[in-house]
Design brief:
The structure holds 2 protein chains of 2 kinds.
Chain A (H helix, E strand, L loop, with lengths): L1 H7 L1 H23 L7 H26 L7 H19 L3 H24 L4 H23 L3 E3 L11 H21 L1 H11 L1 H6 L4 H27 L1 E3 L6 H11 L12 H20 L4 H19 L10
Antiparallel strand pairs in A: 1-2
Helix pairs in contact in A: 2-12, 3-7, 3-8, 3-10, 3-11, 3-12, 4-5, 4-6, 4-10, 5-6, 5-10, 7-8, 8-10, 11-12
Chain B lengths: L1 H26 L4 H6 L19 H11 L7 E7 L5 H17 L1 E7 L6 H11 L4 E6 L5 H7 L4 E5 L4 H4 L14 E5 L6 H15 L3 E6 L6 H18 L7 E2 L4 E2 L20 E4 L3 H4 L1 H10 L7 E5 L5 H4 L8 E7 L5 H11 L12 E2 L3 E4 L2 H10 L1 H4 L9 H4 L12 H8 L11
Helix pairs in contact in B: 8-9
The chains are: A mainly alpha, B alpha/beta.
């Protein structure tokens, strides 16, 4: 019985265990270096490091539960950050900018979600196309501006630097997304489609509709993440968001998310993975690991998690 | 039994992975600061450096003791840079590493965001920041205001970059100029685009080219290149107004979006028989390989030459540098200009700022205009860039100490600026 339970929850144990191990390890080792990850400064740095990845990842759980992934996440964050600065400077308020971003994000989400099913192609293809389009849009915007960086002036963004606000917004988003994911048909159908699309379809699930809705959830979380991304430095650049889609993927896998979706998908994976990733970011340099080597250490840990959680028979990523 | 074996296999795999991770952690647990710069007692620096402690092994010992005395402050100095390889990276790594070691600081390189993204740079610093960090040498300006806001006690000096975001009046980080912890900037090469353009124009005129083209990086990323190109064209136009044989500049400047020049460039009208290409961008990396390929393919003139910037310590490239070779002229910063930021930081950290220091200015670094076979040879044989040999610096570390107020109470800011800018030239390696 115990062995069966362990077998069923091995990825959860690995994810929770990994985070716990990181906390214990860095609590002890940073003390030896005369530092502490529990100091106010380090906790603040941890929240600043984790917030954008966590906000994105929580929304992305919906997409990954479908067995899909969205590689335009980084470019979307870049575009929304830029729009927030440009419109914020024009209007002196972030509200119109947020509305514009939401409209763009939802439009992109609907196309991303629907195109795969309607055009009978992998959903990731449309996100690749959007990634390229948004990259071009970014180049045009910054070429016209004549600068690689733009700053928001006249709008107070200090609230986005507050660890308490970060924690509050992350908790609220997690609860909202968690509710929709676990207790409504949006989440249940998404997981069902990820587990077995044909079976879900045979049960009467509208595949297009319930593939689009997860992308709309993601769109909303990306706009929230963009607010914190831009708000922390009150600036955006032509490279804002580069590689963020990989951060999301790594965070979710570290958190034990099955990459091909299904019923074992959990919102908590995003939180665990994001904090584990951020703890490594903050903790490794403190204990004296040169910056260049921290990537290698993170890669080894990432590999270990994949090794633990991979499917035994096929050897593919977590399921 | 089968299940048991499977469990054992999985357990073994986990154990192996954990052991590997633990081994890596244990192996990496050294002092990051020492890793970067070698030691001050004369051991070769890491990263392939053959340098000793600024060539001052015996003498430094006594002073190092002074530097780490009870009345001197230590800590860690970070170098935030986009460089991660090449001769200049090796030199700066070794120079700052050894200098910090001798002055009693730890040193660590922090890799900036490749695209100078404000949040990327801030995150890079944040992730490397420990409570003992006291200074930052910044080669990029993205997010420098956010970094200084988040770490108000941190002293910052600019180096190897223009930091336009700080110095331009409408720059996104202009407020940094009024922060008393920002200590000024030693630019990379010419700070002024006009000076850069005119210097290249003079080189073209002197070499007697009659048909040339220009290449720049995008204006939104490197506005200086656009300014330089305009100044270059104005200077050539001025020359043409009185010259018997005019210089033709083919078309507008070609903009490279941070990708190497496409070989189809030489198939475009007027580019097949160019005398030279003037590359305001890092032409050694972005133009030269395409020129070599075009010459091999016969799509450009076999004697076409390149006037540009950038530096690579590679024998193959240097073999093609000189009066009758492909790369006829390169302009780079004198490596000894790196003295400026470390002096400014040390003086500030020790609370012994120059009496004549008035505020954070930006300077054109010492310029190495390497435009003859002899000068290329001098760089290879006599400069610290080629093999990261710090003993070959134009100013020895021992002599550099006179610019630190901790060693010389009467040291002046004016002398430091002069020593790290106009006093430096490639002729310094030719004696």
């Amino acid at each position: 019985m115990e062995r069966k339970w362990i077998k069923e929850h091995v990825s959860d144990l690995a994810a929770f265990g990994g985070l716990l191990l990181c906390i214990i390890f860095f609590t002890i080792t940073t003390q030896l270096k005369g530092e502490s990850i529990w100091s106010a400064a380090k906790l603040s740095a941890l929240m600043a490091d984790v917030i954008v990845t966590a906000l994105m990842s929580v929304g992305a759980v919906f997409i990954y539960s479908l067995g899909n992934m969205d590689v335009s996440i980084g470019k979307q964050i870049g575009l929304y950050s830029t729009v927030l600065v440009l419109v914020g400077n024009k209007t002196g308020s972030l509200i119109p900018a947020v509305v514009i971003c939401l409209v763009i994000a939802v439009a992109i989400g609907v196309i991303n979600g629907a195109s795969g099913e309607i055009l009978h192609m992998y959903a990731v293809i449309s996100s690749v196309v959007f990634s390229m389009i948004l990259s071009g849009v970014s180049t045009i915007i910054y070429s016209n501006i004549g600068s690689r960086n733009i700053a928001l002036r006249g709008v107070d963004t200090s609230c986005f630097k507050s660890p308490v606000v970060m924690l509050g917004v992350l908790a609220a988003e997690t609860l909202i997304i968690g509710y929709f994911f676990n207790y409504t048909k949006f989440g249940k159908y998404a997981k069902a489609i990820g587990a077995n699309k044909t079976a879900a379809e045979q049960c009467g699930v509208n595949i297009v509709k319930y593939k689009v809705i997860p992308y709309v959830f993601l769109a909303c979380t990306l706009v929230v993440a963009s607010l914190f991304q831009m708000g922390y430095t009150a600036a955006a650049s032509d490279s804002t968001g580069v590689g963020f889609e990989m951060n999301v993927m790594v965070a979710l896998i570290l958190g034990g998310m099955p990459l091909n979706g299904g019923m074992k998908s959990k919102v908590l994976c995003a939180i665990i993975g994001s904090f584990t990733f951020a703890l490594l970011d903050i903790g490794l340099p403190i204990i004296g690991i040169p910056t260049r080597l921290t990537f290698m250490v993170k890669a080894v840990i990432f590999l270990a998690v994949v090794l633990i959680t991979c499917r035994k028979k096929t050897g593919i990523l977590p399921r | 039994m089968k299940k048991r074996n499977s469990f054992l296999k999985r357990f073994a795999a986990v154990a192996t992975a954990v052991t590997l991770a633990a081994g890596t952690l244990a192996g990496c647990g050294g002092d990051g600061g020492k890793e970067a710069g070698g030691d001050a007692a004369g051991a070769p620096a890491d990263e392939g450096s053959t340098a000793d402690a600024a060539g001052t092994t015996a003498d430094v010992g006594g002073d190092a003791a002074d530097a780490s005395g009870a009345d001197t402050k230590g800590g860690k100095i970070l170098l935030l840079t986009t460089l991660n390889s090449g001769g200049q990276y090796e030199f700066y790594n070794a120079f700052f590493g050894n200098a910090c070691d001798d002055l009693g600081y730890d040193f660590e390189i922090v890799y900036a965001d490749t695209f100078n993204d404000p949040d990327g740079n801030l995150t890079a610093v944040r992730n490397s920041y420990t409570s003992d960090v006291v200074g930052l040498i910044a080669t990029v300006d993205g997010g420098i205001n956010a970094i200084m806001e988040e770490y108000p006690d941190l002293y910052v000096a600019g180096f190897y970059g223009d930091l336009d975001a700080v110095y331009e009046e409408d720059g996104v980080a202009h407020e940094v100029l009024s922060n008393d912890h920002f200590l000024g900037t030693m630019g990379d090469n010419y700070v002024s685009g006009v000076e850069l353009g005119e210097a290249y124009a003079e080189e073209v005129i002197a070499r007697g080219y009659k048909k040339i083209s220009t290449i720049i990086f995008p204006p939104y990323a490197y506005p200086k290149h656009t300014t330089a190109d305009a100044a270059f064209r104005a200077k050539i136009e001025e020359y043409n107004s009185s010259a018997d044989e005019k210089i033709e500049i083919v078309g507008d400047a070609t903009v490279l979006e941070f990708k190497p020049l496409d070989e189809s460039y030489f198939l475009e009208e007027g580019h097949g028989d160019l005398d030279a290409i003037v590359g305001f961008c890092a032409g050694i990396s972005f133009i030269y390989p395409s020129v070599v390929s075009a010459k091999a393919g016969g799509t450009c003139a076999p004697d076409m030459q390149l006037v540009t910037g950038g530096y690579e310590s590679e024998a193959d490239i240097f073999a093609d540098c000189g009066d009758d070779k492909t790369i006829v002229s390169i302009t780079i910063s004198a490596p000894e200009s790196a003295l400026f930021p470390i002096v400014m930081l040390d003086n500030a950290i020790q609370g012994k700022q120059f009496a004549d220091y008035a505020g954070p200015e930006r300077y054109t670094s010492g310029i190495l205009a390497i435009n003859s076979t002899e000068k290329f040879q001098a760089i290879m044989t006599n400069s610290p860039l080629w093999e990261t040999d710090l003993s070959k610096m134009m100013i020895s570390w021992e002599d550099m100490k006179q610019y630190f107020t901790r060693y010389n109470a009467s040291a002046t800011y004016a002398d430091l600026v002069k020593a790290t800018t106009t006093d430096l030239s490639v002729e310094g390696y030719m004696n």
